[in-house]
């Protein structure tokens, strides 16, 4: 005789209730995904911008090309950041999803007047990931958020949202996640950076000129104060201290020579008694790409050493005019030698505080070998 199991009625009802747990969930295509937040200032009020993508922006057609759906830009204004946020949220037609925020853009005006308020707000709200990329700009944030990509690709394939993919092979400027900036900003020594982003309409076109985002310098901060913008030309020396620098092309026009440098290495040694002195030795290995006059390799190496040293000192002295330690020489001094020198002494840099030696080696000269 077969025994039959009887399931109690209360247990059946409980299981039915559990099955209804997903009825209230939202479909991904029914939400606007906030991917970027921007802050600007207008008439003494804070302006908040949202860049939002629908699922159509992110997904690709099955077996086809990426779908370039329109970008949604939200704009709110208020006497506080909370008021500006509410201004946007109260007028939205679909739910806003904050879990995918990838980029923070702050205008130059907002940096000057609202930066501490912005950082405090971001620190109190969990929707901002500490891996969020951070930029500054003196252009329209709406234009930055509407920038294009190549071949009709979705906005995810832009420098704004994927800076490492775009910049790692061709830029010496640091790419700054929010948590790195915050950590450096509140240090009593050294400098913190935010890359300066702008719209470049000059170099690429498809059917028409492309509006692409590009980096043209850094906004620099020291001792929790905004110190201004430095252009790429101002920052030529920074590439020799950035461990992420991957490839550098240097022309010596007067010699009709060009070289390519990969992975330079800077070693910093601390000296000094009454004040810190930094002895920096930069080792550079390069490949000779052009040598029209067939010059001796040793001659080229010496000229390169002079040029690199000049770049390092020019950037250092330009930053020193604004009392900035642009190379963050003082960071380790403060951490490991604060009993030897106080903060004021550590921050009191001069031209004599930095000594630079450059060693250039050209192991491979191609067809120009002498």
TrEMBL record:
Residues 25-197 form the Spore germination protein N-terminal domain. GO terms for cellular component: membrane. It is found in: Membrane. NCBIfam families: spore_ger_x_C. This is Ger(X)C family spore germination protein. PANTHER family: SPORE GERMINATION PROTEIN B3. Keywords: Germination, Lipoprotein, Membrane, Palmitate, Signal. GO terms for biological process: spore germination.
